[in-house]
Design a protein that fits this description.
3-stranded antiparallel sheet; alpha+beta; 3 strands
Amino acid sequence: MSPRLNIGLPETFSPSEVAKALDCSEWWVKEQARRRRIPFMRSGSGYRFTRDHVEEIFRILEERPSPASVIEGEVTPRRRTRPQLVGPVASLRARSPRRARNAA
């Protein structure tokens, strides 16, 4: 294999190389590109990613705390609380099995 010639073209990365950098599966990277959720370029060999693409993917996936919660020390609940039911609640009753209805 000949060494790469530096002719001003950007270096590209395969989905497996991007997956390794993101610590995820190659399938996930391809699926996100297919659904147009992450930037990519398409070549004869499939999906390819430039360094700018990979940096943008990291920015897309980055999560930061909201400024208000950092200042106030607010902790967001992990579980949703169930809404309080208002008014009477109807109890449910199971139907008889079809075979029992057809036998009659």
